[in-house]
Specification:
It contains five helices and 25 strands. By secondary structure, the protein is mainly beta. Strands 14-15-18-19-25-21-22 form a seven-stranded antiparallel beta sheet. It has a six-stranded antiparallel beta sheet with strand order 1-23-24-20-17-16, with no helix packed on it. The chain is globular. The structure holds 2-acetamido-2-deoxy-beta-D-glucopyranose (5 copies).
């Protein structure tokens, strides 16, 4: 029996009301700040604690201004980006002056603002705590933590210098109390930091929206901690990031929204703003709305505060039984990989289109087929994994832009290792087939389409991105109990850059 789950999504930048949303009082105001971090020009040169503090105070001054603005706009929670206080590219020793030893809030209650004498060398924690308290909001920031480690009791995971250095998110309650500390698990070329000995699954509760979970940057692509949080029914995630954009599949806002839609969660994403590092793209995403910012070429290199009123999604506050919900949302499937990878039935589908070619997209060898008609239907497979597309280009006989449908099933191995099944409809950067899969930011061809694949995972993240990095909410998404995911979209507002179904085969990552 096929269990069909239809989701009709509506897209709006302000508040939107839909059948899936909670009662009127179940809303809160969230804020994220995209920060143009003031950098240390020589991050590999060690500096004194005093000099490191002087540097961080300049970024903290900006945080303070933004906390004041967010409070004026009634924000109840404010998120700052990864590395927003110290910047990047430190060595293990050159970051020393920036480190504070952050006490574990699960072990002790501490309000750094009102009890500054409890722990030495915690100026940054104190300032952040006082900011939360002064502006009466929950505040999330990312900073560098030093934890001495017992060489005797944990000799295998303790670095030889007897200390762990962690990339860390801290959360302060609106009275300044430190309520959560999360150590990033999936590091991305960060030689100053250690991977924690165990993945940490960290949540905190708020009176206005219930439970939130914490992840950082690269974590979003991996099972631990991200999917572990989802499996614990955490439906509101906080995501400080320092993410370098990479089209056609991993631009910041594109993947942020895809994750929110695919996981059916709220994501509060705060990125760094830097032209040189190609970092921009922050937002407040819910399954029915997206409030986001993505700087364009030539925009001034400056920060941006985003504030949005969003629905509470905590299942307990919504009065839902979490077990019921899991059954309802995900069919009978409770496992990691719900679906076998049997080849799809061919009866109703077109035969694989003959004129396929292989081109590299995001360092992966996609099998592509060109869309060479005004309207049509194409299939493309990589092994037994097949993607199907029905399309109609608008206006008929319009631009000469080249589009292709690509399929990839395999393990991505460059700058991180993760296993994927992806169906992607892309605008090719040039007129040649060889340009398909390369970066392009502009397009003028609109398209009505239906994109479909049968996935060996229930974790499939959908996205539609148009000209100059504008997001569209897919008109309709449908998942069947055997893993078939269909995305239908029409009435595009601008030319199509990329539409994808991005399946993460977490269960195959370690193979
Ligand atoms: C980090 O340093 C390397 C050289 O050591 C440089 O190539 C790179 O651009 C730097 N990255 C950042 C984020 O500053
Ligand atoms: C802080 O440092 C001072 C001077 O080094 C020391 O006397 C005091 O005990 C320390 N306080 C804590 C809480 O460690
Ligand atoms: C998403 O969550 C809402 C509850 O917030 C639920 O009603 C809906 O069915 C879920 N959608 C999917 C596709 O799981
Ligand atoms: C499009 O490609 C198919 C083969 O994939 C070919 O049969 C068809 O003639 C082509 N159409 C045009 C308009 O070039
Ligand atoms: C997918 O395509 C690539 C490139 O053609 C190929 O090397 C790989 O074996 C294919 N994967 C499967 C599962 O057939």
């Amino acid at each position: 029996m096929l269990l069909l789950v239809f989701v009709f999504v509506r897209f709006s930048l302000a508040s939107s009301v839909g059948q899936t949303e909670p009662a009127v009082d179940s809303w809160y105001v969230a804020a994220v700040y995209e920060h143009n971090v003031i950098l240390n020009p020589e991050p590999r040169v060690p500096l004194s604690r005093l000099a490191a503090l002087r540097h961080m105070q300049r970024n903290l001054d900006i945080y303070e201004e933004q906390a004041a603005r967010a409070a004026q706009l009634d924000a109840q929670i404010l998120v700052f980006p990864e590395d927003g206080l110290q910047g990047f590219n430190f060595s293990r020793s050159s970051i020393s002056g920036y480190l504070e030893t952050i006490p574990d809030p699960q072990q002790e209650s501490w309000n750094p603002c009102t009890e500054p004498g409890e722990h030495n060398n915690t100026e940054v924690l104190q300032r952040l705590s006082c900011m939360a308290r002064r502006y009466d909001l929950y505040l999330v920031a990312n900073m560098a933590d030093l934890q001495p480690c017992p060489l005797k009791t944990a000799p295998s995971s303790c670095p030889s210098d007897g200390r762990w250095q962690f990339n860390t998110n801290v959360v302060f309650r609106s009275d300044g109390q430190l309520v959560a500390r999360y150590h990033k698990h999936n590091l991305y070329f960060e030689e100053a930091f250690d991977t924690p000995p165990q993945p940490e699954i960290i949540t905190f509760d708020t009176p206005f929206a219930g439970r939130f979970g914490l992840i950082t940057c690269f974590d979003i692509l991996f099972h631990k901690p991200t999917v572990t949080l989802l499996q614990k029914h955490v439906r509101q995630l906080i995501f400080p990031t320092a993410w370098m954009n990479q089209l056609p599949l991993l631009d910041t806002i594109q993947f942020q929204q895809a994750f929110s839609l695919g996981a059916n969660v709220t994501l509060l994403a705060a990125n760094i703003r830097s032209d040189r590092l190609i970092m921009t793209g922050s937002g407040i995403y819910t399954p029915t709305s997206a409030t986001y910012h993505h700087a364009q070429k030539g925009d001034p290199e400056e920060g941006r505060l985003l504030v949005a009123r969003v629905p509470v999604l905590d299942p307990l506050l919504m009065g839902q039984s979490v077990l019921m919900e899991e059954g309802a949302v995900r069919g009978e499937c409770h496992k990691e990989s719900c679906f076998d990878s049997a080849p799809p039935e061919t009866a109703s589908s077109v035969l694989p289109s003959s004129a396929t070619f292989v081109a590299s997209m995001m360092y992966d060898s996609f099998t592509f087929v060109l869309l060479n008609e005004t309207r049509g239907e194409v299939n493309v497979c990589n092994g037994t994994f097949c993607c199907h597309l029905q399309y109609q280009r608008l206006p008929p006989g319009g631009s000469k832009e080249v589009y292709a449908l690509g399929a990839f099933a395999g393990t991505h191995t460059v700058n991180g290792r993760y296993t994927l099944q992806v169906c992607a409809l892309v605008r090719c950067a040039g007129l040649d087939a060889s340009s398909c899969g390369q970066e392009v930011e502009e397009a003028e061809s609109k398209m009505d389409f239906l994109l479909e694949g049968r996935f060996g995972t229930r974790y499939v993240y959908p996205s539609v991105l148009v000209n100059k990095l504008v997001l569209e909410q897919p008109e309709r998404l449908e998942t069947t109990a055997d893993g078939r995911v269909t995305m239908k979209h029409s009435k595009m507002t601008d030319g199509l850059l990329t539409a994808f179904l991005y399946g993460r085969m977490y269960h195959l990552d370690d193979e």
